[in-house]
Amino acid sequence: MPDCTNSDQKNKIIYAIDGMAPQLKRLALQIHGNPELSFAETRSAAALIAPLENAGFVIEQPLGGLPTAFRATFDSGKPGPTVALLAEYDALPELGHACGHNLIGTASAAAALALKAACPGLCGRLLVIGTPAEEEGGGKIILADLGIFDAVDAAMMVHPREKTMVVRGGLACVDAVFKFYGKAAHASSAPQKGISALDAVINTFVGINALRQFFTDDVRVHGIITDGGSATNIVPAYAEAKFLMRAATVNGLRQVREKVFAAAEGAAAMSGARLEIEQGLTYAERNNNQALARGFQRNLELLGIAVFDPPVAGGIGSSDIGNVSQVTAAIHPYIRIGDVFPHTPEFAQAAASPAGLDGMLQAAKALAMTAFDLCHDATLLRAVRDEFSRWKLANQAGQEK
């Protein structure tokens, strides 16, 4: 233990982040102004790495074979836990940073910088893990499957939202592209010689819509037509649709996927088209570590930030941190940045607003304070790890039934 109290150290953390506030805001605005899509976040990753490297963190990039993934490590040389702060920085097509990943990545980097600067007696290892492609591709899934989080005792990140919440669920999800191959023909003079791939797409939507009354309330299935043909007077020889399927658990998602795939296969059979299916990685449901969440909430309240309960029903999306939460203790709390909802133009504006930047600084402070607690409060660390161990045993027992 260092020769100082937690509250003194936390005051130092707060002062450190306040002192860095101008450069942190510039960093978040830089990433916001240069949005990059999944697996192409070259400038965003570099912008986050630069201050960490300058502060003496050891940088590994690429990480797990992903060019825009990275790990920044500060090893104190003293016995203690390994705490990971997760950075996201990919943007959405057309909307840019309408999920606020510019704030997420900057908050995690800021927390690590402040902790190293303010707490020279820190025990254990502090990591910032840059995780690309949360929106499309599942960078954390790839890294988790490669064992990147196996030696991590706790993982944290903070997501911007319309209200501050500490424990909120996340649905399992998977995407799939349905590619239908038909036969071109003149749509007026010889339609009988064609096979409409577009009809197969349309009937896939019809079939899935017919399934909705038989899905449980947690299930969500949404899709778009990504290719519907090239001209109205040609029977489409190729058409394509992409769907995202969600359910409360991975096990429930398997059943949803089987039904959706059967609908696409039936649509192909009806039209005479040939079907190919390309399936993405599966995002697991979120396992929130309650002990860690309580510790995080205490620090938010120390900062004078009110914490609200999550919605009783609905209002839940998906994130690849769910896969991280299957291999180590993890939390994914939320910080208020305004009366806005993700994946909208209004949210993109809020992610660069004064309120958004202030929320980012609050998130950074709470992350750093909680990481400090994990490194120097043996009771909290034991509670976090014991809870995860109990969950893992129960989860394994459930899978074996």
UniProtKB/TrEMBL annotation:
Peptidase M20 dimerisation domain span: 177-265
InterPro entries in UniProt: Amidohydrolase (IPR017439), Bact_exopeptidase_dim_dom (IPR036264), Peptidase_M20 (IPR002933), Peptidase_M20/M20A_hydrolases (IPR052030), Peptidase_M20_dimer (IPR011650), Xaa-Arg_dipeptidase (IPR017144)
Alphabetical UniProt keywords: Hydrolase
GO biological process, one term: folic acid catabolic process
Entry GO MF terms: dipeptidase activity; para-aminobenzoyl-glutamate hydrolase activity
TM segment ranges: none
Record GO cellular component, one term: cytoplasm
Pfam families xref list: M20_dimer, Peptidase_M20
Entries under CDD domains matching the protein: M20_Acy1L2
Family membership: Belongs to the peptidase M20A family.
Protein name: Peptidase M20 domain-containing protein 2
The organism of origin for this protein: Acerihabitans arboris
